[in-house]
Amino acid sequence: MSHYLRNGLNAGIVFGIVTIFLVLIGFTVTASDLIGTFLGNASASGVLGLPAVTFHLLIFLFLLGVWSGASGARKSPTEADSWRRVLSGAGLAGLILGILAGGLAMLIGSLLLAGVRMSTYFAQLLPDAVRLYLLGLSPASAAIFYVIFFFISGLLGGVFAYRVLRGSWRKKFSIWINTKTQWILNGSGIQLFKRTKSIRLIVYALAIGIVLLIPLVIGDYWNYTLGTVGIYVLLGLGLNIVVGLAGLLDLGYVAFFAIGGYTVALLTAPAPHHLLWSFWIAIPIGIILAAVAGVLLGVPVLRLRGDYLAIVTLGFGQIIAIMLRSDALIAFTGGPKGVSAVGGPTFFGRSLGTPEDFVYLILLAVVLVIFVTIRLRSSRVGRAWEAIREDETVARAMGINTWSHKLLAFAIGAAFAGLGGVIFASRNQFTGPEDYNLMVSFNVLASVIVGGMGSIPGVVGGAFTLKGLPEVLRELENYRILAFGALLVVMMLVRPEGLLPTSRRKMEIKELHEDANEAGETSGGKT
Amino acid sequence: MESKASIRTHKPVSTYRIVQIILGVFFSGYLIWRLYDVLIAHPAYGPDTWLRFAIDGFVLGSVYALIAIGYTLVYGILFMINFAHGDIMMVGAFGGYFVFEALGAVQVPSTTGPGLSFLNAYPAISVILAFLAGMGIASMGGYFLEKIAYRPLRGAPRLVPLISAVGASIFLENAGQLMFGSQRRDYTNPTVLERGIGWNLIVGGKPVILTYTGVFTIVVSVITMIGLYFLVKRTRLGRAMRAVAENKSVAALMGVDVDGVISRTFIISGALAGLAGVMWGIHLGLVYYYVGFIPGIKAFTAAVLGGIGSIPGAMVGGMFLGLVEALGPAVLGISFQLKDVIAFSILVLVLVFRPTGILGEVLSEEKV
Questions:
Q1: Position A491 confidence tier, pLDDT thresholds 50, 70, 90
Q2: In 3D, which of A380, A404, A407, A384 has the Cα closest to residue A394?
Q3: Sequence-ordered list of residues with C-beta below 8 angstroms from that of A227, at least 6 positions apart, any chain
Q4: Chain B, 123-152: which have a CB under 8 Å from a chain A CB?
Q5: What is the pTM of this model?
Q6: A347-373 tens-digit pLDDT
Q7: Per the CB < 8 Å rule, is B344 touching A315?
């Protein structure tokens, strides 16, 4: 079989499976909603006599078909380009995709007509969703339609790949991008900014002023969201020290978050203990307790490396979660019901309870934590951490006490999480076991990884993307965690250093890849 | 001078050792006291209850052992924790579930009396089909998991495939949740394998039920484990697997297809997870998207407990963990809600006291 046909076959099967998967998880419905939101009212009346939702679904499927065609038309370096070959690969990809998608339409369509309630088994295959997928046609005609539809869109994808991605357009585009970036970087404004201190100061002052003014104008809902993102930034910065700087994969990070949250709750709430301490006293206590817990966990487990550490910390996080949820600690922590009426901060008798106040509080905490991180990173300790991350044995040979440095990383990371937990519980005025499930750990880990391990702008950016973006695109809420998982895998495959990596981390990854390529498979041996 | 220097470098190690020993004595003393208290001083349960706990433990342990072998096989070859292994088990459990549901809906015409469903008319065939479906889909899951998420990362820094594995696990779990919904589903067994029925044993004047599903689970998993042991020790594939585990480049020089062997290892470990998933469904009767996560971590604990990389170790570790989990709350006198805490504490304790596990080879610190 020629290379093109095989390529097309592979692309068709992969995209066919992806399409079936998207239908089963209900993403097709969501995507058509989303496209509808983007296109606005212009298409609401429907085009070509189709209802608007169907039209939007077809747009989405069309894009999938084009993509499969483009990927089916990929060229191997040894083969010459020719229209015929490109189109045979793309067409085959589209055809296979069409057959799989059409087969699915046939199957679920006839099951629907037979009156089988598919949603008992596949939660997303509600009758309406199936009818949408059938485009209002009978199962057989929908299947035929899909075959033709995907075949044509696959061919278009092939043309697109051939003309646009490979041809002269691509070259022109990259030249255009390069000149533009050069122009921006070397432009007079940037140069002036780089050279003149007073202008720099003014720009920074303006930026800070705008940031400080934002919470005043955006209203409670967005302030609340911003606060949530801010707490995740705090957590991310803490985990960044553990994972990003010291290279210790901690999957039970949420436990420290929980310790902070429960500390403030138990100290300030009236319910289980009636201590009613001030929020400001609870902050340092929460931070210290979390750090102590970090040390207590760290002492036994930090002798372990990599994988074992990950799973032990995961186990620790689970232990804390199970204890909080069970009845064993019900007298002490309120058990599954949690603690309500957690005290908030006050300032000379004025209560600072609004989301707006909390945004400022969180901002202050974030700035403080960023300051501490920067100072630590460029200190002796920070360099020791990075040395441990790069190669622990060599670090030890260089005279670094690896154990105590790792312990310190654990404790500081835990302390930041404790601070985040204190603010989180106080802002919600409630804390319960469900706030501290494992997904929090994974969320934070994803934002550290996606942003770039060790990089502060990366963590901030990562938290905004992973926690803030789903708030903006509410339709995608269900797929958020799914996307986290996929994102972690894809980031590791494509860009393990993250989106905004520190220059050193980038170098390391590159070096290691080169080393690995040189050493081949030998590194896996039992040495 | 030299001896002095060496004493100084060893000092922290020996203090750690002393702390270990003190803690070890403390724990074993506590355990002995609790055993004395529960069994002799204040006997809370009769022998029938203890036997029931032990049976539960063995059944659970045999499932853990199967999952643990999957971890151990992969760890032995790639030195990475296949974090998504528990979720592969979930996939397998759903495979068996759908076979049972489909066969339960098919009516078989019968000459005598009302027609039975295929599931009840041919229970043996149905169970075999369910196992085949669960194992097939789970081994496909394992194969694609390796191909997509792990293979491109071979040779990357160790944290990279681990994070990729965590990502794959999150992805599988949530894909399961989105597809099948969040509700817990009942596994419909054939009526002969109904949960809760079985042989009645009389122990201490009270009946103890030895359920059919439990015996079935133990028998199937023991047979599988024996088969697997022979696969690894006696067959060509097993020899290739051991060679790849020993040294990949040398194995490749000897003409072993390293990538192929790794793929097949993932297929086998996926099939074992699928088997465990279907048995989990048949015995415990619940299946939902999160069903594989906790057993996955516990099975990892079992693998570590037995010595990761060793197949007999995984079996022993799994059985031991199952027993401890079933008997632990009663012995320690704590709430049964906290049985998971026991399993995770064992993980931490094993890693602290004996990271090589019960039957483990001595690993260099590099590996641990």
A1: confident
A2: A384
A3: A355, A358, A359, A362, A427
A4: 148-149, 152
A5: 0.83
A6: 776 777 777 788 888 888 898 999 999
A7: yes
A40-96 pLDDT, tens per residue? 655 555 566 677 778 888 888 888 888 888 887 776 555 566 777 777 888 888 888
Beta bridge partners of B208: B201
Question: Are A461 and A397 found together in one domain?
Answer: yes
Collect all residues of chain A within an 8 Å Cβ-Cβ radius of residue B168.
Answer: 485, 488-489
Domain containing residue A15? 3-175
In this complex, the residue of B181, B252, B341 whose CB is nearest that of residue A323 is: B341
Q: Each residue of B87-123: pLDDT tens digit?
A: 999 999 999 998 888 888 877 776 666 667 777 778 8
Residue A185: inside a domain: no
Query: Is the CB of A318 inside 8 Å of chain B's CB atoms?
Result: yes
What ipTM was reported for this prediction? 0.81
Are A120 and A239 part of one and the same domain?
A: no
Q: B160: which chain A residues are within 8 Å (Cβ-Cβ)?
A: 492, 496
- To the nearest whole Å, the CA of A125 is away from the closest chain B CA by 9
Between the CA of residue A361 and those of A13, A349, B283, what are the distances in Å?
52, 17, 52
Q: Chain A residues with CB inside 8 Å of B246's CB?
A: 525-526
For residues A348 and A456, state if they share a domain: yes
Contact state of A312 with B155 under an 8 Å Cβ cutoff: no
Q: Which of residues 234-253 of B touch A (CB under 8 A)?
A: 245-250, 252
Cβ–Cβ under 8 Å, residues A132 and A60: no
A190 located within any domain: no
Distance CA A133, CA A23 (A): 8
CA distance B100 to B125: 11
- Whether residues A489 and B250 touch (CB distance < 8 A) is answered with no
Among A431, A454, A472, which residue terminates a domain? A472
Residue A357 inside a domain? The answer is yes
Domain count, chain A: 2
Choosing from A423, A455, A472, the residue where a domain stops is A472
Same domain for A248 and A125: no
For residue range A365-417, what is the model confidence (pLDDT) as tens digits?
A: 898 999 999 898 889 988 898 888 888 888 888 888 888 898 999 899 999 99
Q: For A266-304, give the secondary structure using H, E and C.
A: HHHCCCCCCCCCCHHHHHHHHHHHHHHHHHHHHHHHCCC
